[in-house]
Amino acid sequence: MASGTPPFDPTPLTAPVDRAEVRAFTADLRRRGALRTRWVSGLVLTLIASAIVLFAFPSLLALIYTLTSGRNTVNPVSIFFVLFLVAVIALVVVAIVRAFRGRAERRFRLDRFARANGLEWRGDVDDPPLPGMIFTQGHSREASDVVSGYRPRFIEVANYTYKTGSGKSETTHKWAYVALRLDTPLPHIVLDAVGNNGLFGASNLPITFTRGQRLGLEGDFDKHFALYCPEGYERDALYLFTPDVMARFVDNAAALDVEIVDDWLFLYARRDLSTLDPRTWEWLFTTVAAIEEKVAQWARWRDERLSSSGVASAMPMLIPPPVGVAPTGRRLKQGVSWVTVVIGVIVVGYWIVSIVSDVFFR
Questions:
Q1: Is 226's pLDDT higher than 70?
Q2: Which residues pair with 178 in a beta bridge?
Q3: Residue 326: burial class (beta carbons within 10 Å; 0-12, 13-18, 19+)
Q4: What is the pTM of this model?
Q5: How far is CA 190 from CA 177, 268, 274, 333, in A?
Q6: What is the largest CA-CA distance in the chain?
Q7: How many helices (H) and strands (E) does the chain have?
Q8: Is beta strand 225-228 parallel, antiparallel or unpaired with respect to 171-193?
Q9: Which region holds residue 177: left if phi is over 0, alpha if psi is between -120 and 50, else beta?
Q10: What does the pLDDT look like over 304-314, one tens digit per residue?
């Protein structure tokens, strides 16, 4: 474990909690305006109270009055209906109360877990200002259960969603990410994990990159990752991904997609990473520690395409290039997925067949 890194303490994730402390923590979030579900909770509780006042409570009172008045005029079906209605509302109330209590306890546990590990729980963040590929897709972008801080390098872990389309065609895309701040900007590099690809090896990433940017590496690395780097930066990618660095990614992050962009390194997953599962957090911290130990050497990288008023090119050994990345290396060129091409061909083919059928077989 790196010097200055707090010891890993998963105890708050599973230890018993004091209900009074949870309520006090929730009340404090409301006072600070940090509890977004407050209006939703109030609306749901209002609807339940209205249903009880308008339907269940009067019906139950009428049934009790009829049964105790001595006039046996109640239809058994009516008795069953009233009791069934009361039971359904009671079950709904219990389920909602448990759900609210569960979310409150989850927030409390993650906050205490973050504190115990030198981090901070920040709750939900709209449209997080991060440069990774998933943060520029769709709309209604939101990071939830954000945990961030220094261990000792800045790290942020969160679950993430964005939406595409609208109305009945709206789709919610679920991701999770680990963001690791680097010491210097680097070329845009993507490691597309082979193990989480879809049907026929189709990438699960939201962006496709041109095949001319694919760089093959030695050993078994290509069996685990497809590495993309900007054209002309192949030598830089080899400098960054030395055999020992490649081994760390294969051993610790083969199940995750990786993106290096600007001065950030992102690990992407399609399942929750900010969770109450201690094993997930232990795996994340172990993975980050293993990668961080190697990427620290990336701070020495400089883009030789940059120069300082021509002086650096005149005396390259005396004045190294400044920190940064030349424009050609800052972003990978996007391509078109073969899946999209196949779907397009099928749609166009169906359209042509329909037209031919209408013309010749009417």
A1: yes
A2: 157, 267
A3: middle
A4: 0.80
A5: 14, 11, 23, 11
A6: 108
A7: 12, 7
A8: antiparallel
A9: beta
A10: 999 754 544 55
Burial class (CB in 10 A: 0-12, 13-18, 19+), 195: exposed
Strand ranges, E, within 118-256 = 119-126, 139-150, 154-164, 171-193, 214-215, 225-228
Residue 342: pLDDT over 60:
no
Considering only CA atoms, which of 128, 137, 129, 131 is closest in space to residue 208?
137
Whether residue 261 contacts residue 177, with contact meaning beta carbons closer than 8 Å, is answered with no
CA gap 177, 2 in Å, rounded: 22
Question: Per DSSP, what are the bridge partners of residue 259?
Answer: 190, 266
One-letter amino acid at 341 equals V
pLDDT, one tens digit per residue, over 169-205 is 999 999 999 999 999 999 999 999 999 987 777 899 9
For the chain, what percentages of helix, strand and coil (3-state, to nearest 5) are there?
Answer: 50, 20, 30
* Burial of 156 (C-beta count, 10 Å sphere; 0-12/13-18/19+): buried
Which string of DSSP letters, residue by residue, matches 286-333? HHHHHHHHHHGGGGG---TT--STTHHHHSTTTSPPPSS--HHHHSPP
Nearest to 256 by CA among 174, 321, 152, 178: 178
187 near 330, Cβ under 8 Å? yes
Residues 183, 154: contact at Cβ < 8 Å? no
Q: Express each pLDDT in 31-67 by its tens digit.
A: 888 876 544 555 566 666 666 656 666 666 666 666 6
Q: Please tell me what DSSP assigns to residue 132.
A: S
Q: How far is residue 3's CA from residue 68's CA, in Å, rounded to a whole number?
A: 76
Q: Which residue is it, tokens 């845009």?
A: 188
In angstroms, how far is the first alpha carbon of the chain from the final one? Answer: 76
**DSSP 8-state code for residue 199:** G
Sign of the alpha-carbon torsion through 228, 230, 231, 234 = negative
